[in-house]
């Protein structure tokens, strides 16, 4: 897969202000109105609420009981569950999109989870922190420490994130399991997309996180 | 919950409410009654057509012009239709006034709330304590065995009678939750939203075992007379009270009992070296037993526990639970409580998995509390917040006007 093939940078909604996070706005922009969406690891339900304002039928799974109960208390259709163990309960093609926002790196089996996302959803939207980000590299190279950032403040011994990867790693995984990248975005530290059409290595260095719209049947 | 009363005798006292008060409610309830004649028999799962029969019910609030704001509340094993009014036999407040009432999640100013006594009950719906019109005597064990689907079938006939096509919500906990789930499985198009609390799609072996213990306690009472005690003008109150005491323990939790009672003594400093109720927890249980028999019929207890034992939605759908909910459009909210060991969270999770497999719209919250199964009847604010939000969200989707946002 060539880099240019997977970098169709379109007009972005991220400049919008308001109560919603920039990366959520970007994800929401990738979802066609009127579709059915499952948000895996939906946290407090902020993204689901944003999707709801756009007439999207959203459901959620969240690991923490507190998160689930806050979501349900907002009237959202959210269940307590684990991406690693509970996705198997959903039938094929149950959703138009399955979203995994900042959760992939916390799963025990990212590959299996990714395969499940694209089994139960016709498309998947996956975002994750990029461990190839220059500040991460610098912390390890110069400081000799496991990297920590504003968005990933936990120490190595108490982090829930057990499977970090770089944008480059993720692209390779998608190739390996025949996942097609319909759209890819790299976001800076503030969740704003890097607006330029840039080669992968630049994204891998300057993107703090990657957001990918995926569908079945890509790769080798 | 009910306070602790001192009980001096080592055995369970006789009821203070006369049997006449209770038996009057059985056939002539102080609530509304829907009577179904020979032209409308109730088809029971056991193969019997029950006719005539009656369903006693209460309503709160007004049905709107679109007939779209009706909520059916399904009561638990020993509940009845008096969900939010003073009980005609005991004089106590309604059993779910924490959830139902002005300013509560189920506010009669917004919803038309219906609660009926289940078929097989003893508060005005036809059951083993009712008079069998064929003999002029109390049904007793001649009453056919009923099931949860039978209860729901009777409720559907009541809803028809009230001119309601689709219920905005069906709500219930424990055995009431079983009815909620049965409603969605049997009449998915008639249930817009379902709030199923502390329940399961099937009764577990442990729960059947507890019920059998209770039934054996009733049947071991010499006053039971093989179910024909009414003919003798007596009631097996000792056996029924023991059944209730055993069941009541299962509604609580070790932590809740410890917090409430610990090893504290009842009105005394030292043990009496007797079988008197030395401990507060004993006194409490005896009170629970003796107050229960004042308002409940022993045979009815046998029939309703049996109905719960037989409940297994998956078994009715080829053993695959998800098939029961295939293609369902009902909005579900499933709630469990961490310390509920009668209907543990694992049971709710199995239901949620089946609903997910059916692509149903489902919310599922497990609420942390040490109050056990009974938590659904108690003041648990997080439960109310979740119930309120679920109903409001469903109401918005249903186009109900929302007076309190």
TrEMBL record, chain A:
What does the record list as coiled-coil region(s)? none
* Record-annotated membrane-spanning stretches: none
For this protein, the record's InterPro entries field holds: Methionine_synth_MetW, SAM-dependent_MTases_sf
Domain of life per record: Bacteria
Protein name per Swiss-Prot or TrEMBL:
Methionine biosynthesis protein MetW
The record ties this protein, via SUPFAM superfamilies, to: S-adenosyl-L-methionine-dependent methyltransferases
UniProt organism field: Bradyrhizobium manausense
UniProtKB/TrEMBL annotation, chain B:
Query: What domain of life?
Result: Bacteria
Q: What is the protein name stated in its UniProt record?
A: Homoserine O-acetyltransferase
Which regions are flagged for Basic and acidic residues bias? Answer: 19-30
Active-site feature positions: 174, 340, 373
* Residue intervals of the AB hydrolase-1 domain: 69-378
SUPFAM superfamilies listed in its UniProt record: alpha/beta-Hydrolases
* Main enzyme class: transferase
Q: What is its EC number?
A: 2.3.1.31
Q: Name one GO biological process term.
A: homoserine metabolic process
UniProt lists the family membership as follows: Belongs to the AB hydrolase superfamily. MetX family.
Sorted alphabetically, which Pfam families does this protein's record hold?
Abhydrolase_1
Question: Which positions are annotated as binding substrate?
Answer: 244, 374
Could you state a single Gene Ontology molecular function term? homoserine O-acetyltransferase activity
